[in-house]
Amino acid sequence: MQTVTRRFFDTPVEFLKGVGPQRASLLNKELGIFTFGDLLQHYPFRYEDRTRFYKIAELTEAMPAVQLIVKITGKEMAGGGSKRRLVAYAEDDTGTMELVWFQGIRWVNEKLKTGIQYVVFGSPVRYGKKFSIAHPEFEPQTEANTKAGYLQPVYPLTEKLRVKYLDSKAISKLQRELLILANDKIRETLPGRILNRHKLVDKRTALINIHFPQSHDLLAKATHRLKFEELFYIQLRLLKLKLVRQEKSQGFTFNDATRLTRFYNEFLPFPLTDAQKRVIREIYTDMKSGKQMNRLLQGDVGSGKTIVAFVCMLIAVGGGAQCALMAPTEILAQQHYTNLKRFAGQMQIPIALLTGSTKKSERRTIHEGLQTGLLKILIGTHALIEEEVKFDKLGLAIIDEQHRFGVAQRSKLWKKNAGMLPHVLVMTATPIPRTLAMTLYGDLDVSVIDQLPAGRRPVKTIHKFDSHRLQVNGFLKEQMDQGRQVYIVYPLIDESEKLDLKHLMDGYESVCRAFPEVPVSIVHGKMKPEAKEYEMKRFVKGETKIMVATTVIEVGVDVPNASVMVIENAERFGLSQLHQLRGRVGRGAEQSYCILMTNFKLTAESKKRIETMVRTNNGFEIAEVDLQLRGPGDLMGTQQSGILDLLIADIGKDGKLLQTAREEAQAVLTDDPALSKPENNLIRNQVELFQSSTTNWSRIG
Ligand code: ADP
Ligand code: MG
Hints:
Blueprint: H1 2-5, H2 20-31, H3 36-40, E1 46-50, E2 53-54, E3 66-78, E4 85-92, E5 95-101, H4 105-111, E6 117-122, E7 124-127, E8 130-134, E9 137-140, H5 143-146, E10 150-154, H6 159-163, H7 168-182, H8 192-197, H9 203-211, H10 216-248, H11 258-266, H12 274-287, E11 294-299, H13 305-318, E12 322-326, H14 330-346, E13 351-354, H15 360-372, E14 377-380, E15 394-400, H16 407-414, E16 423-428, H17 434-440, E17 445-449, E18 460-465, H18 469-481, E19 485-489, H19 498-514, E20 520-523, H20 529-541, E21 546-549, E22 562-567, H21 575-582, E23 593-598, H22 604-615, H23 619-630, H24 655-671, H25 681-692
Parallel strand pairs: 2-3, 5-8, 11-16, 11-17, 12-14, 12-15, 13-14, 15-16, 18-23, 19-21, 19-22, 20-21, 22-23
Antiparallel strand pairs: 1-10, 3-4, 3-6, 4-5, 6-9, 7-8
Helix pairs in contact: 9-10, 10-24, 11-13, 12-13, 17-24, 22-23
The structure holds adenosine-5'-diphosphate and magnesium ion.
């Protein structure tokens, strides 16, 4: 009787007719389904089109699974050994075809009778002139299965469930039972005005049609509605978090711009781009607001984030505070330090570098300088977040290339202040698609440098097959004769891969053979840091003309005279990685080139990656394609976020809807930040349900 008093959707799934303890335990373990609510939100991930029957003459190669009504005219065993198969010959009034089984032959042979009409379902493949379907579903034709066409849901399953006969059809049956019970209990979870404005179907219609689509049209509407709702409430929660944070978290007020003005007037090495100026204004507005800044700064490779970071440091130093800049690698930290030391020196601001290889005595001096507050700017690697590093007054924490740090690591840095939290600026060179940024960083403010410094010529990207190597080498020689330097990058996805290392060394040797009179550097992850550093420096100084390397050069390194990048086995790199690599060239005044080398055999996905690289230099566009190809889970360490565990929406594909949902959520909160108006009761209840529960059923209402 307990179940009666419980909220209906909280009822353990075990109590649904047709489930019981054993199946319930399977559903718990395999799919995380515990309650009625969980089950109802176990949405199909695709549908099989049973809305119509095809004729044999209509079959084409590109078809997904289709259903046909055919008569079996004969059967025979064919082949031997592993090729042994049962072939059934089938016909309708337009032609003939074959049905083939490699497994379960005996069972099929018993069931499948010649001379009888069957409804068969499967994906047709053409062999010669004839079509054939391997392992089709089949049922003797009846009035029922010939009549009402429908879209059959296919549910996410595991092998264990299939073995226990909890397949899509079984789940579908359970959904039907559940929907009959739930019919009058499904409550609307979005206010009428929002439903109207976005032409969304009601919740009940949506849930029924997501499991039992009455038509293509209603299925589309149901999907749309459920996606919108999911995205809307995610955005609402994120935006609300942001509101709360803005209200609560006090921040340093830095409003002294004299250093900034002086730097602009006396030392600025080049006019800032409009985008850089705009971003600096946005950041300055935050820093003088008295509220703690939490800002994500996005800018494509080479867009000039470093100088923006320095200008922000000037603002913090103007307020008597210290700054920290954390980079993911030693080389990158070093490079930042080298660049910023010049500016800091001009402005007479004490600056230091702290990495794993900083000497003990030097460390002590740095620690002292930090605690007395005399040392104003500290650049470094994750060495910055070690226990003994203590600041007097950390006013600004900047994190470069953020995706390489875990969330926890980052927050360690900004918790270094005993009192107030420092302003936080997270810089990323990997442009995150807007949609993803909104979901992941919905509670952060986002600034974008969407412009490259003037006079930058876009890198020309060319795809060449390995068979064109001689031609490519000829081109490299030409470029080097004109004084340019060349990167040749090999994939070393895992630095411990012996085979990759061998390819790299072979590559190095063949480069040396091809250009016997040219000095060549080599850098890879297996080398000692000092040796790496030494080789890098030789290349930076121009002593070597070719740098054979792995992706260790991916981030940050700046050699303006290196204008050609050859990427070997380009098909093995991810899109954003290719784009990062390409960002190493195109930094000087000369026309730069990126040559993607691949073999002939390319998967559809690698083809798409290469094509995208050749087509565009726009990091955001590339990030969007990357997101579509790989899904958000793979992207730059977003796995930890949890927020991407979406039930139905797809960040890669539903960008526009996400935007709409976010705008709607923003509008609601702007009008009623506390959600206290009566017309927002429904929304408030939903948000509270989310907060009080970690299970999903609350989304149903
Ligand atoms: P990223 O955004 O990739 O970190 P950097 O800050 O390293 O880019 O800048 C790339 C290069 O462009 C550097 O050599 C830098 O000095 C130069 N640069 C930055 N801003 C400008 C500008 N406004 N005009 C000309 N050159 C610039
Ligand atoms: Mg940079």
